[in-house]
Design a protein that fits this description.
8-stranded mixed beta sheet
Amino acid sequence: MQVESVRPAREVTIRPAAATDAERLRRFLSGLSTRTTHSRFFTGLGRVSDRVLAMLLHRGPGQEVLLALHRGEVVAHAMCSALPGRDGVGELALVVADAWQRRGLGQQLARDLVDSAAEHGFREIGFTVLAENRPAVRFVTGLWPHARPLIGDGMYEYLVPVPLPVAA
């Protein structure tokens, strides 16, 4: 799948992640600003450990991990995985490199993951957003205008229905 950025000369490829992407993902995560890292992980990352990389690249049952690459380097990471103890509910998390934010890349990744969520048995997808992260709140409500968050502990938790697959 090809996605065009705001500047058409910059082509981005979105594809499933692989274990061989570990060093590429480490460079990406290490290059994120403190603000972006905190917005995605709710904390700083420091040195990116092999354990964190393995967790972010793991594609087990009910899990999907996508990378957006530009010139062979990761510019965005998105994943959807089952929420423990919540049958039929997946959680989506994504992060876009600072220089690539507000170009529609996050929206494309979110749509791709939500579109394939039914194949993984999800009926709903959840998002947890820091209440102070106004761009992320606008992102979620822009894609799902009817989504209303549960508010608690400085976080907004959204739950949106997964569209049923279209019969061919």
